[in-house]
Amino acid sequence: MTDLEVKDNDFMEFMEEDDKSIASIQNKPWKIIIADDEEEVHAVTQMVLEDVVFEDRRIEFLSSYSGESTIELLKNNPDVAIILLDVVMEKDDSGLYVARYIREELKNQLVRIILRTGQPGQAPERKVITEYDINDYKEKTELTAQKLYTSVLSSLRAYRDLKIIDESKKGLEKILISSSTLFESQTFSAFTQNILLQLSDFIKFEDFSDKISGMLLTGSRMDDLTIKSATGKYQTSTGENFTLIADTTIKTMIKSAIDSSENSYVDNTYTGIFSRNSNLLIMYLEGVKEFSDMEKNLIKIFTNNISIAYDNLLLNQEIIDTQKEVVLTLGEVVETRSKETAFHVKRVAEISRLLALKLKMSEDQAELLRMASPMHDVGKIGIPDAVLNKPGKLTTEEFEMMKKHTTIGYEILKSSNRKILQAASLIALHHHEWWNGNGYPSGLKEDKIGIFGRITAISDVFDALLHKRTYKDSWPIEKVLEYIKSLRGTQFDPEIVDIFFDNLSYILDIMNTYRD
């Protein structure tokens, strides 16, 4: 028999439920394990606590009658808030074993353990409190209904506060993990996809549905916002104008976020604005839960990191754009000095990029080649005008001098730590090497020649032959194509030649776009 006393005058007055409480009964309940080998204890405990509502959440009772079954219940229900734990069950110390197992083996520091015993002499309070990480100790003879209610309610408050701290900790850990990827070097496209995934994942707190739809928008003002990346039902809208696919409600939310420069949470939607200058970056998510103040603060911290990362990306892009402009301008200056057109380097750059992509190189590598290839002849700066612009055939000595433009270009560029200039230095050095080893300056053969140099070589020769130079007239397209085909496997990499002819129509489009 249990010593738990239930007296009519000891029943507490339960909190009156208002409309909000009634509407919130469907909220996830607090889980409480009743661990006791006496059936009557389970029945009385549930009767006393069955109508308790704490923060609009009822109580769900889980029953166990032994130490082993209690441990299994905890393994399957890590979100248990309280355990009402009897000391003596299948063994005299079953409850004490369970208490230690919870803390040391399951590493569960959140659940509140209320130890209940009908035999205090077998588990003295001072000894148990000192040696076991429990939160309350009650003799069953003293545990009236009112005291049980008080003990459970105070334990629920403690559990709630610990959960808030724990979620804050987990949230901050998510911020650190998610933010670390934001500050990695990446393209703008990769960045936008990354932050959509990171933020969607970040707001998936415990017990939160994965069904989120969202859009990441960029632009300078409301009417030119473009969907840079999307998920869920908006996934097929990437690249479209936001105003053409969004309804009035969403447009109103986005406009409000822009006007207020504040994140907003309305009707299971989240709208965040990460950049407030002329380069707007806006996130819209729907299907999200209602956030607590703590969660909103964590999101604010994370979105501040997004803003910083975005500003850094824009600054880095500005540096890259400046580098590209300098490289292209210098390449154009060199071509102009040698009586060639500025569009020569643009055509070579675009053809080289196309060939790189068709060779299954990454978008980043293809873009790097496009930016670096205009510098292939930068070494001509060191060649005298008399040789550089000689209208006739060069003498042997003059040709040897002309060949030096490859090494001069390499020496000019090789000391830079910038990826563009590093790539350009090797292109300058390699673009006159031949596949069979008969080129210059080093007589490199096959794969010993850098892939950027091999690609630029065929692009350069193709364009040069099609256009007039001081030393020759332009060739007809048929003759140029026949010439390139004849040098497959001797001057040019055979695979690149094949790719060149497979994509000839695209190459001719480039020639027309950048016509002199």
Topology record:
Blueprint: H1 19-23, E1 30-35, H2 39-49, E2 59-64, H3 67-76, E3 80-86, H4 94-104, E4 112-117, H5 125-131, E5 136-139, H6 145-182, H7 188-202, E6 213-219, E7 226-231, H8 242-245, H9 248-260, E8 264-266, E9 269-275, E10 280-286, H10 293-337, H11 343-358, H12 363-372, H13 385-388, H14 396-403, H15 405-413, H16 419-430, H17 451-466, H18 477-486, H19 494-502, H20 504-513
Parallel strand pairs: 1-2, 1-3, 3-4, 4-5
Antiparallel strand pairs: 6-7, 6-10, 8-9, 9-10
Helix pairs in contact: 3-4, 6-7, 6-10, 7-10, 10-11, 11-12, 11-17, 11-20, 12-16, 15-16, 16-17, 17-18
Give an overview of the whole structure.
A hairpin with a 6-residue loop joins strand 6 and strand 7 (226-231). Helix content is 51%, strand content 11%. It has 516 residues and is of the alpha/beta class. It contains 20 helices and ten strands.
Look at the helices and sheets and give the structural class.
alpha/beta
Strand content: 5-15%
**Low-confidence sequence ranges:** 1-26, 205-209
| Counted beta strands | 10
Mean pLDDT: 79
User: How would you characterize the largest beta sheet?
Assistant: 5 strands, parallel
Rg over CA atoms, rounded to whole Å, is: 37 Å
User: In whole angstroms, how far apart are the ends?
Assistant: 102 Å
What is the N-to-C order of secondary-structure elements (H for helix, E for strand)? HEHEHEHEHEHHEEHHEEEHHHHHHHHHHH
Helix content: 40-55%
User: Widest sheet: strand order?
Assistant: 2-1-3-4-5
Principal-axes shape call:
elongated
Number of helices, counting only DSSP H or I runs of 4 residues or more: 20
